[in-house]
Amino acid sequence: MSIIDEVAQAVEQIREEEAEALVRRALNEGVDPAELLNKGVLLGMKGLGKKFSEGEYFLAELIMGSTIGKQCIDLITPYLPSADRRKSGVVVIGAVKSDIHSIGKDLVAMQLRISGYEVHDMGIDVPTMKFIEKAREVKADIIGQSAFLVSTIPYTAELVKYLNDTGLRKNFKVIIGGTGTSDQYARSIGADGWAKDCFDAVGLCDRLVRRE
Ligand code: B12
């Protein structure tokens, strides 16, 4: 088993000290940080979510596991490559109202920043109007929303509706992401795009800003 697989397993099995030690060792050994993040930590977190949804883990374990995942992500972050680019565009991003899932959004914000975007991270539990106010204030190119719950995903549609109703739709591209959302759903609500992960999110923003 590769060290990346071991990281995934340690995160999924909530073995805190081991997960962090493995990540440190992998970084010292020169393992590709993006691969370590994607195929190690993030895969482990996916496994964690699966165990939770299947009833094998309870909420306490989900919280512990996601804390370990976040700590591992923090260890890897400084090693991720930073693109030396001119300012690519302005993005306002946040988790929709009543949604406190932040880890994925934080990763998207980070990848966008290292790819040259000016990112305004509004945090979690952001009411729809706050996204719009901020986007107008900073003259954003793109508004990005993260949503995870059946009960919170509809707020992404609310944003598009508000923008349409106020005549502001043409000013901003709207993108969404998070478990439970999909490309198909994004299209159905009239958003401009969806991305499965933080790396695709950068490609998506590049396409939207350059209108490729
Ligand atoms: C970690 C986690 C938590 C943590 C969050 C900690 C934190 N600070 O973020 C805690 C424990 C707090 C939590 C709480 C809850 N959770 Co939770 N959680 C998860 C879990 C296991 C992983 C999410 C995660 O961080 N993944 C790792 C990151 C890196 O990946 P990601 O989030 O998918 O992000 C990537 C992409 O989605 C994309 N992306 C993300 N955002 C955006 C935005 C844009 C604009 C773009 C383009 C792309 C993009 O790029 C990201 C990076 O690559 C998921 C399971 C899952 N499979 O998603 C459940 C899950 C989302 N949670 C779930 C539930 C039910 C809950 C709770 C209701 C549990 C409860 N009973 O209290 C609460 C809800 C609280 C609330 N009001 O929001 C369910 C949702 C079910 C549903 N469809 O409604 C899931 C799917 C678990 C499950 N299978 O049942 N959770």
Can you give a write-up of this model?
The protein has 212 residues and is an alpha/beta fold. The chain has two domains: 3-79, Methyltransferase, Methionine Synthase (B12-binding Domains), Chain A, domain 1; 90-210, Cobalamin-binding domain (Rossmann fold), CATH 3.40.50.280. Helices cover 54% and strands 10% of the residues. It contains nine helices and five strands; from the N terminus they run ααααβαβαβαβαβα. It has helices spanning 3-12, 16-28, 33-53, 59-76, 103-114, 128-137, 154-165, 183-188, 198-210; strands at residues 90-95, 118-121, 142-146, 173-177, 193-194. Strands 2-1-3-4-5 form a five-stranded parallel beta sheet, with helices on both faces. α7 links the parallel β3 (142-146) and β4 (173-177). α2 (16-28) packs parallel to α4 (59-76), α3 runs antiparallel to α4 (59-76) and α6 crosses α7 (154-165). The protein is globular, with a radius of gyration of 18 Å. The N and C termini lie far apart (41 Å). The structure holds cobalamin.
